[in-house]
Amino acid sequence: MKVKAILFVVMFACLVACCSDAHARRWFRGRNYSTTTYRSSGPTFSGTDQERAYQEAKYMHENRIYRHVGGVIGAFEGFGIGGPGCATCTPRGGMTLTADAHYGNVRVRAWR
Known about the structure:
- By secondary structure, the protein is α+β, with helices and mostly antiparallel strands.
- It is about 50% helix and about 15% strand.
- A hairpin with a 2-residue loop joins strand 2 (about 95-105) and strand 3.
């Protein structure tokens, strides 16, 4: 009986730890990628979607910052590390690719 109780407590603690980590990742991701404060504190890029994607890829590569910087290009943006053909996040559908740029080992794509 004691073994079952201990096992239950250990499994419950693991479940709580996993859920809290997932919640923290969702909060952190949403906080960094969607708040106005974050976007206004980063670099600003100008031009067409293609030009902005190239500027962002260059900035990320040169500064070794591997996260979204300067806000979202278009309606959806994905980036990847590994070269010109590496995988990036993609939208579920209904959008058109408007930019696909790489610099060094960083690839940035945007959709509208």
